[in-house]
User: What shape does this take?
Amino acid sequence: MKSVVREILVTLVLAIAIFLIIQATLQSSIVLGSSMEPGLEDGDRLLISKVVYFWGEPKRGDIIVFSPPGNLNSAEDFIKRIIGMPGEVVEIDGGIVYIHQPDSIIMALDENEYIVSPAVTSYTSGIIPADSYFVLGDNRNNSNDSRNGWLAERDDIVGKAWFTIWPRSSWGLVSNHSFP
Assistant: This one.
């Protein structure tokens, strides 16, 4: 009888430990709206890695989940792609995104892999402050993003989109894009 009780207690403690580890490292999030189409669609359920940025900084091309700035009055987290890094200026001209880096190098982003309809309006940001990121939705012409005068703050980032778990037809790794 003692061994059965001990096995039950060990199993229970192990299950609680696994649950707490998963809660601390992963989060489920639902895509609301069409701003990240075609890669992420309205209603897709994602797993978000909450620990990836403990060991490294966000990178251009990462799809992040973050709390929107307070002036947007949104209770829901946003999902967008990081385009501009601290110290840079982002310019959109003729549907092409240009990154003006602090060392005066201008880089055109090759976004053909995940953009179906490039932005139709031109835009130029100011210099992105430290601990802030310029984010855009992949559905450039239907997205509330940094072109509306706000940035994603480092402290507001919940995590990096990692895996689509629903619907079953979309199951797989999220397309975080790497740039040179």
User: Anything to note?
Assistant: DSSP finds one helix and twelve strands in the chain. The chain has one domain: 27-173. Residues 27-173 form a domain with the Umud Fragment, subunit A fold (CATH 2.10.109.10). The two ends are 62 Å apart (CA to CA).
